[in-house]
Amino acid sequence: MKIIKYLESFNRKERFHLVGQLLGNSAFNLDPSVLKKILDLLELEIPKSYFSAMDYHLDWIYASVALTNNDRDIPLLRNDLCISGTQEDVDFLLAFEDDLENTHIIMIEAKGDTSFTNKQIQSKANRLTAIFGNGENWPNVIPHFLICSPVKPKQLEINNFPDFMLNKNKEFIWFELTMPSNQNKPTRCHIDGKASKEGGYWKVETLRGLVS
């Protein structure tokens, strides 16, 4: 469980701890039915325990796996894609150890109103490849990648992605994100209602359904 302990130690986002405290779920335990759905997609068994977090930096993931084979008290050579110094992250992370002492690291990328872009997904793929290779970089560490959205994306290009980001059909592993039906947003516009970042007016755009 050494990797899990490091993952926990790097998880210093105040939002995680605030939300967990306010909801009385400081461990960020998942709804059992949602947990089963995720693991079924990956053909994994439900673990006895797990670590989960939101907005988890890719730097932290690399540091956690790298420190299992390195001395934490001395400086380590830096690879820009592994320790980038940026806040690039995955929206949700789930990690656990199975009965064979393999550590599974499940990374979930989600979109609600906005769409996935090839640029964003390719950036994730480049960094995750640098961290995990094709999934073989770290003994007994098994990475997984899921995308989550209201509608399964069809426009994404899949080029030179590591195997763990795809299913057996070389497609992204996807599960549905349920969003409320009464969603609106304020949009800047001109007096004629035409959307514009420079507009001196604003209007309400309906995204899904109407407010009752």
Short description:
With 212 residues, this protein is of the alpha/beta class.
Protein model, in words:
- By secondary structure, this protein is α/β, with parallel strands linked by helices.
- It folds into 2 domains: 178 residues, no CATH class; 32 residues, no CATH class.
- 25% of the residues lie in helices and 24% in strands.
- It has 5 helices and 7 strands; from the N terminus they run H-H-H-E-H-E-E-H-E-E-E-E.
- The strands form 2 sheets. A 5-stranded mixed beta sheet has the order 1-2-3-4-5, with helices on both faces. Strands 6-7 form a two-stranded antiparallel ribbon.
- A hairpin with a 5-residue loop joins strand 2 and strand 3.
- The longest helix has 15 residues.
- It is globular.
- The N and C termini lie far apart (49 Å).
Distance between the termini: 49 Å
Q: Structural class, from helix and strand content?
A: alpha/beta
Mean pLDDT: 91
Question: Main beta sheet, described?
Answer: 5 strands, mixed
Helix run count: 5
Report the portion of residues in β strands: 15-25%
**Helix-strand sequence:** HHHEHEEHEEEE
- Helix content, binned percent: 10-25%
Sheet with most strands: strand arrangement: 1-2-3-4-5
Task: Count the beta strands.
Answer: 7
Show unreliable segments. none
Radius of gyration: 20 Å
* Integer count of domains: 2
The shape is globular
Defining traits:
single chain, 212 residues, 2 domains, two-stranded antiparallel sheet, 5 helices, 7 strands, 25% helix, globular
